[in-house]
Every structure is written in C-alpha cells, then in structure tokens.
C-alpha cells in the first residue's frame, strides 16, 4: 500500500526540493535499514491483498533478491550486528522496485471502482433504442 | 372451418404490399448483387474491404496473416490470440471490456491455420470507436509478464485440456500434420505432441505481434459498413501500426507440399477416423479446383434434410445411423485437404471407413448416376453461398484473400465456378485421390480401427 506522501508537492517546488533533499538523505541513512542491506521498499508491510499481488507480479530475479535481502537482514538483526560497510545498500541502489507495481495495482483498482460507480448518459442518437 | 376470407387475408395482404412496393432485394446468387460483393481498398498500406450489408449492425474484423502456419515458435499464434483486447498504452483491459459492454458490442478473437482474427460486432454508429480500438490493439497492446501468467497462460492450458478430450479434433489435427508436415501441418490447438508453452514468454509474444500486426500482414474487413466511412477511419487510426514486420520470418511461407501417411493414437473416450486426400486451395489461391467441392458434397455424409439419410453417398453407406460421417473440403491459401471424418462406435467406424474407400473407387470408375452429381453440385453451390453469406466465414476468407493474394473472396464467382464443373472432372478428381498417397489417422480403440493397408489405400 502506498502511504500518503509529500514528495510530489516538494518535487514540484525546486527551492523547497533544494532544502529538503539533504534532510531526506540524512533521514534515509539514519533510519538504519541500509546498514542491514535492505531497500526502502522491503519495509512495506505485506499483510494485505494489494502488496501480496504486487509481490506475485515481481520478476523472478527481483523476488529472489528480495528474499535474500530479507533473510540476510534477519540474520543481522538476530546476531545484533550490522553488515560490513561494503555491503550496505548504496543510495543509488535504493530503488522503488515494489512501489511502482503497487501504484499500478492501485490505479487498476481505482479504475474498477470508478467504472462501477459510473453514471450513464445515453447519446441522443441512440436514446430511442 | 376457416372462412374463406380469413384464410386468404394473409395472401391478399402480401399481394397488396408487393404490388405497392416492387421487390427490392435481389436474389443472393444474382451475379450483379451489389451488397454481396466486397469492395476493397488500401489506406496508407493497410488493406481493407467492406460490404454494405443492409442492417443496423456491423461486424468488423482484423485478419492477420499469423495463424499457426506462420508462427516462428510453437504456441505464439494462440498466445497472441489470448492477448487480444488486453491493456494497451491508452486503456486497460477492464476499460476495453466495459466500453464494449456499454456500446452493446461483442468482442472475439480466434485463430485458424493461416490467420489470426480479432472480431467485433456492434451497432452501425459505433464504427469509429471500434476501428480506433483495433488500431490501438495492433499498435500498442502491452505484453505484460503478469498478464501472461495470470490471464493468458491459464487459457492456453484450458485449450490444451479441451483438445485432449476431443478425439475428432485430435484426428483432424493429426491428419493435417501428416499431410503437410510443417507449416500448414502445425496443430492449431495446444496439442500434446508439441511442447506448447516451452517457447512462450511475453517478450517472444511481443516480438511476434510486431510481425503479425505489421501493415503488410493485416487486413481490416467490415460487413455492414459504408466503404467511404471505413476508408476514412482506417486512414485515421492505423498510423501507429508498424509498416513492415520487425523481422522477416520465413516459417510457413514456402509452397505447401502434400506428404500423406498414417498415424494411430489410442484414446479411451471415443473413436474418430479421418481419411484425407489432397484438396483444392481457396478460390483466391493458385490451386483452386471447384470439382473438389463437388466431390466433397457428393461424398458428404451429413444430411441437410430432416428424417432422411440424404442423397450423399456416405450418408447412405454408413454402417449405422449412429455413426457420424462428414466430408470437409478444407481450403487454404496454397493447398487444401479433402477429408472425411467418421466418429461413433469402433466397429461401425471401421466398417464405414471401408465403405468410404469403396465409394471413392466407385466414383473413380464412373459407376455413378448423373442425378447424384447434379444434386452434389447444387448442394456444393448452396453450401458455398450460404457459407459466404455467413458473416464470420466471409470476413475470414476475404481478409485471408486480401493479405495473401491481394484479392477479396467473391462468392458469386465461386458459385459460377461450381456450376461449370462437369461429371468427367469429378470422376478424374476421384481417380487422382486414389492415385495419390492418402492420409489416414485413427484415434480411439486401435484394436478395432483399421490400418490404411487394410482399407486398400496406399500411404
């Protein structure tokens, strides 16, 4: 599920973006998941239909990598350790691989709801039929 | 008792109306009947044809020369068929479906040995919408991996199961494979003999779509649309379609040759026996032989009249009333197959197969009445005209003719050709069947079903 985000609002305003970007970078590093080798999208709660479907739609290699990252992170967490610095997730590797699929599914569902609640108006030409 | 005035009122009324309004509709077989002929044209490289059949509905078809014959890898044609009407760059699957429902339309896609057909039936006013939709489907369908695994693949598996449960279909497919080997012989169904999903993946399907939907490989055919209208909209909406195939694929393009042979497949559900011989190509092709159609209806097997076995020779020769016999003249762009399908109880099927060969020998040796040939000619002509009048078949044949031979399938002319068939031609055709190698395929109880050599055929 995609959470409400300020990002589009900020990205539209370059002056604000200049201000917030360093803050965001600092926050992402401070959050600590990169030190466990995770990506931000690995942290999305998966206990709902949308995300489960999105996970099913991942290409096989990405699904495998995700499981690998999660298991490695569990190991680290249990042994109370961090990965060696070379294996930390680099900021450029931290890509939204799952949220893209999630937004796609959400637009699909929204479209379905919209079509379901649509109000019909007959064309004047066909009104007689 | 009916009073005289009551009994005659209908007649009187009919007489009155016909006196007021002269008969407007011409007979279908009339040579100059305008509405029966397809008008063809070319819009920026896309071939199209239409006939303005009076009526409030239109049937529009996009015929693509990409049936199983032309597929580069097994299963591509079927996968592409199942990818029809899925999400495009502009609208989703759901939107296409809902919009079509709102317009009261019917969408359909199917493939034959030579063609892949996308078909829509709708109210006449909606022509622009559907031409646009077809242009969009051909140009910008998204071949997404999850759509393939979630929606397309299950359909292919279902088709495979349906095929395995149908001995008649298996026998016909096997006969085609024996007769033509590769190309035309490629099974249209997901047959058990081919690894039917091994070569499939979304990228391969997308690649094939760039070949199948190239301008040189498609034709747009409409039934019940004004030619000028269709021309205008095809001109407008087919810009996004690739003008040439992404890659020249040679599969299936070589001239088909006939091989023949025998195959026996055991099946525990029912029995089917197919006897096949080289036939005639379609009217638009180079090897058109009208006498094969007449021979086909002379052999026949299925009665067109209730409560009677019919005039056809096999209809009278079959071993029991429960045995089903039918003779089909399958026509393709450059070859054809005349085949008799026999289904029913195993021993009856065996007996009927034996008498089928005897009947063909009888025709070849000329022991056949003129009367029968006249009946067969009439039946063949009727069947051809009725087939042409049937919108679906007409669209398919016309599209096929346009793509392959740049010529629409004109039914009137076919009917004339059949009229011109002589008795000698039919006998000569029967003789040539026996001289050639036959194709025999038996599916079912192999203990009872005969071998070709037992029937006196050479394979």
From TrEMBL, chain A:
Localization terms from the record: Mitochondrion inner membrane
Record keywords: Electron transport, Membrane, Mitochondrion, Mitochondrion inner membrane, Respiratory chain, Transport
Keyword match Methyltransferase: no
Pfam family, one: UCR_14kD
Location (main, coarse): mitochondrion
GO biological process, one term: mitochondrial electron transport, ubiquinol to cytochrome c
Membrane topology of this protein: Peripheral membrane protein
InterPro entries cross-referenced by the UniProt entry: QCR7, QCR7_sf
Keyword Transport tagged: yes
Entry's Gene Ontology cellular component terms: mitochondrial inner membrane; respiratory chain complex III
Similarity remark: Belongs to the UQCRB/QCR7 family.
Function: Component of the ubiquinol-cytochrome c oxidoreductase, a multisubunit transmembrane complex that is part of the mitochondrial electron transport chain which drives oxidative phosphorylation.
Protein known as: Cytochrome b-c1 complex subunit 7
From TrEMBL, chain B:
Domain Peptidase M16 C-terminal: residue ranges: 212-379
GO molecular function: hydrolase activity; metal ion binding
Membrane topology reported for the UniProt record: Peripheral membrane protein
Keywords: Electron transport, Hydrolase, Membrane, Mitochondrion, Mitochondrion inner membrane, Respiratory chain, Transit peptide, Transport
Location relative to the cell: Mitochondrion inner membrane
One GO location term (cellular component): mitochondrial inner membrane
Broad class of the protein's primary localization: mitochondrion
Pfam family, one: Peptidase_M16_C
Residue ranges of every copy of the Peptidase M16 N-terminal domain listed in the record: 54-187
Family to which this protein belongs: Belongs to the peptidase M16 family. UQCRC2/QCR2 subfamily.
Name under which the protein is recorded: Cytochrome b-c1 complex subunit 2, mitochondrial
Annotated source species: Massarina eburnea CBS 473.64
